[in-house]
Amino acid sequence: MRKSALVIVGLGSVAAIGLPAVPAGATATRADCRVVAGTPRLTPSGQIQAAAARSGCADRSRVRLRIVKVLPGPDRTVKSGSTSVRNGRLSIGLACVPGTYVTVVTDDRGHLAKSQKARLTCDAPDPDGSGGSATGTEIENEVVRLTNAERAKAGCGPLTHDARLRGAAYAHSADMSAKAYFSHTSQDGRDFGQRIKASGFAFSAAAENIAKGYPTAAAVVKGWMDSPGHRTNMLNCAYTHIGVGHVAAGGPYWTQDFARS
Question: Which of 102, 137, 100 is nearest to 119 (CA)?
Fold first, then answer.
């Protein structure tokens, strides 16, 4: 297996954990100080998002928010986050995989809340020049379209936007956004090859481009094309598939995963 890992550093600032409004959730275990859990939902960008809140409390506590996939067996947590807060709201998200999910929120004082179950199908938006695959958001598909336009100039065939690669790319961008870092290596130690393998895409060669701070699809593609190493990945005619993940918060953060099946 041949892999290449190339970094492009863009502009942008580190973002704090977002605190959006929380939809109605389960009742808390105590009347005054309480936690509530919002039902998981699918965002327009194709992300599963869960939100929670703590209110009426006089002391600070570490609040843990989990997205749990409803399956037989032990705890099926697929994403977890925590923060220390007295009263406030928090949210987490991850790339969507079809299934039934529930939000669970707890704090150090013994409060617990669970949301209603949500069955999410992860229906993707229609493509926009994305190589014939109904995968990704409009801005992600624009990156694919522009990348394929550059490949055409170089005599390479178009890349197909693959849902598994898109999931790996989006999850990495979301993780960098949520944890405020910028690296090909995830904070759990995985490299891009391991993330692509975990997505279920079997590959004989792979590569990754990442970027931060570029405001548009055209800007990030130009940034990558102006960098020799990233340009090499984009114009490698051996690659057949691509996944693009874009997350705006704190960046924007961009990930391109390339692979040959």
Answer: 100
Averaged over successive runs of 10 residues, the pLDDT of the chain (261 residues) comes to: 34 24 35 82 75 86 87 69 81 82 89 86 48 71 94 92 93 92 92 91 93 94 92 93 93 94 83
pTM equals: 0.53
Query: Is the distance from CB of 86 to CB of 57 less than 8 angstroms?
Result: yes
Please tell me the distance from the alpha carbon of residue 176 to that of residue 153, in angstroms, as a whole number. 32
- Tell me the C-alpha distance between 261 and 22, whole Å: 42
Token couple for 203: 């590959």
Angle at 132 between CA 3 and CA 212, to 5 degrees: 50
Task: Tell whether the torsion through CA atoms of 256, 230, 139 and 23 is positive or negative.
Answer: positive
Contact 210, 254 (CB under 8 A): yes
**Amino acid symbol at 230:** H
* SS3 label, residue 134: coil
For the chain, how long is the longest CA-to-CA vector?
Answer: 67
Three-class secondary structure assignment of 2-45: EEEEEECCCCCCCCCCCCCCCCCECCCCCCCCEEEEECCEECCC
Residue labelled with tokens 């990945």: 233
Q: Dig out the tokens for 104 from the structure.
A: 């669970």
Q: Given the DSSP bridges, would you call strands 253-260 and 99-107 parallel, antiparallel or unpaired?
A: unpaired
Question: What is the Rg, in whole angstroms, of the alpha carbon atoms belonging to the chain?
Answer: 20
CB count in 10 Å sphere of residue 98: 9
Question: Which of 69, 251, 239 has the alpha carbon at shortest distance from 170?
Answer: 251
SS3 93: strand
